[in-house]
């Protein structure tokens, strides 16, 4: 689901595709004074057992019957000031970037494409294009601006004079263009519908995994009754399981009310966030309270700022209007996953997610269907001790928690008791060296790190 929104871009970003074509929706939502849009959890089942196989994830070709727009209308550039504090300030990114920037981590952005931008220079690769094809290296066109904004929230490099910076400004991005509200294809009934659906999303996930992604961001969502979601999303679920088995973190937007069918009927679920293999992210407003547009459900895992963001725009500038929606929130969490993967390279994908959840700022009443385990805290995720952090109040229907310790190592052989005294002496010296190393590490400035990048 695309949950980024601006007044200028809302109509172009709202997608709703037919279930027979496995729908997808990019949802951008305006802030609201109302409570988060919720579902009746008593009537919402857990996702079904995995029954399908993952798609091939081959290099994509042009979408059959694709109708391209006469001209593109990406989000406008400008210099507007967001009324809410920017996410970088709320997440204390300047402090987090002293510890990690996401260097060496590959984040796949499955979206409307990502346009080249000076603040992504040297860190953006084309991964494929399910709309127009183009072969290897395609995916670097963005007719709508959504994917470029999402990419900026994940990994935009900082620049003097503004507060636009990605959560992981050192990460490398892999752009896979999978959807685009400016493009249309014939639906099963012959009528035109926006290009991009659950079938191509499944293919895009597999392509991203096979391209070596460490983190996959899906700022898309569509809301459906559970039985329709189970029938239409089986291949997507299989693709997500393939990603988990490949040790990849997959992050998706929880959904925005009024976009992609979300909030239309009680008892709906949001895809792909409904699946246990995905980290589903809701939105907070200027504080840690749930934003009025965010879709709530027991599948929601975490929350992140969903208002007040400006990001990268097609053409090399910045978006004119502040963005709002869970697309932005998902992008911020994908960036945080990249930071944790760099800082703790020994952790598995599941352990990375558990660490982020365990260090989130918890809702006052415990786990919440709109906020999940709470609002993410990048600095805490990078500094909390010990290695294994419990995750209380786990939501029903999520996968088993595995802690945040490193991968298990094979058991060591028994120690020779005669060597114990020598080992203890060596340990003391080693501890002193490590303390010195940590002090040096804490003093590294962001400028000394490789460059990095943020969404809209």
From TrEMBL:
Q: Which UniProt keywords apply?
A: Cell membrane, Hydrolase, Membrane, Protease, Serine protease, Signal, Transmembrane, Transmembrane helix
Q: Which InterPro entries match?
A: Peptidase_S8/S53_dom, Peptidase_S8/S53_dom_sf, Peptidase_S8_Asp-AS, Peptidase_S8_His-AS, Peptidase_S8_subtilisin-like, Peptidase_S8_subtilisin-rel, T7SS_pept_S8A_mycosin
State the residue spans of region: Disordered: 27-90, 436-456
Compositionally biased tracts (Low complexity): 27-36, 51-70
Has the keyword Signal been applied to this entry? yes
- Report the subcellular localization: Cell membrane
> What topology does it adopt in the membrane?
Single-pass membrane protein
User: Which residues does the Swiss-Prot or TrEMBL record annotate as the active site?
Assistant: 111 (charge relay system), 146 (charge relay system), 327 (charge relay system)
Biological process terms in GO annotation: proteolysis
Record's signal peptide: 1-27
Give the family per the record.
Answer: Belongs to the peptidase S8 family.
Q: What is the name of the protein in this document?
A: Type VII secretion-associated serine protease mycosin
The protein's organism comes out as Pseudonocardia broussonetiae
| Gene name, Swiss-Prot/TrEMBL | mycP
